[in-house]
């Protein structure tokens, strides 16, 4: 994922400047973020950049854009496909390393939002709706990017027997397909809902592309 280094660094510099981080703290956090997003196939610098690009489209609609952006940076920082508590561990790591960046209550909110990306349940929280939609935006991406995403997820689960993977993956995609609506905000419903449902249905029909 080194091809994404410059963009990843650029977005971090912009965020760091916006919250007036001291240079030493900014460099330390960047090092942590960059390191932890290396070694995966989908949960990588690319995914964070794609999330941040969408965030920049809608941040003017948010009540607390700083909290949403911090959640984006850390929401997948811990990712072990064989673990069941990645979001909880990501939230803990964020709280550990971001002391003093925001008030304690704000960090607790960000941690709760990160954990919410685990199940993507409907919420009444305005900003959380946008965060969850951004995290699922990949489902409504171009046909080419969605196919790449499916390959990346398959690689992250290459330790699972093929038939078992196909069955479980089909269950996941079918779950998302039947979510009505899939996206919780009007913005992402208009932008991505139709393409996401088409991608999901095509993948389900084609044995998830394997």
TrEMBL record:
UniProt xrefs under InterPro entries: HD_phosphohydro (IPR009218)
Family matches, as PANTHER family: HD PHOSPHOHYDROLASE FAMILY PROTEIN-RELATED, PTHR21174
Protein known as: HD domain-containing protein
Species whose genome carries this gene: Acinetobacter sichuanensis
